[in-house]
Sequence to fold (223 residues):
Amino acid sequence: MRILIIEDEPKMSSYLRKGLTEASFTVDTAADGKDGLFLALHEEFDLIVLDVMLPELSGLEVLKRLRMTKNTPVLLLTARDTVDDKVAGFELGADDYLSKPFAYVEFLARIRSLIRRAPRATRDVLTVGDLEVDLVRRRSRRANARIDLTAQEFALLQLLAERQGEVLTRTFVTSQIWDMNFDSDTNVVDVAVKRLRAKIDNGFEKKLLHTVRGMGYVLEDRS
Fold:
């Protein structure tokens, strides 16, 4: 998942970038509204963190121009916490609003909530490192070698690839792939993940399918 931070305070920008990077997001930054708007319009991001008080162009002006062509989720940051400021941001198309100072845990929770709510772009081929998942032909390849998967294995891989970088719980995976209530006594998810891992990771030095103890599974390139 790729996030753009448009923030003119170097310490704040560095702090947020470090935290989001450690949370497995890919992060780009811009220090003023003009550069931030250019990146937002010419690159693809899953979410934009936008400070209201910016040089060159204000955050609200950036948001106004962005909404003319793109619906990328936007989290506004501001030191001002008045109702009028919030209303102005929401009327221009902001998706959420966070007043400074704030706790990082709340910031991260807001980020993850917005990403979960956002419609996902439809793509024909998903890539994770050197792994390719062709959604049209229902095929997968790694390092240009074809990987043969069952229909269920491909569905599981597609789910993980579409949400790469996100830790998916067993309950969520079960509801999406098997469409049944999760039974904590069954290991159907663990068995399916083990079989998929054997096909996409075995024989490769770099592992892509990871277990997050006590939480679930995540597909990501950690290099």
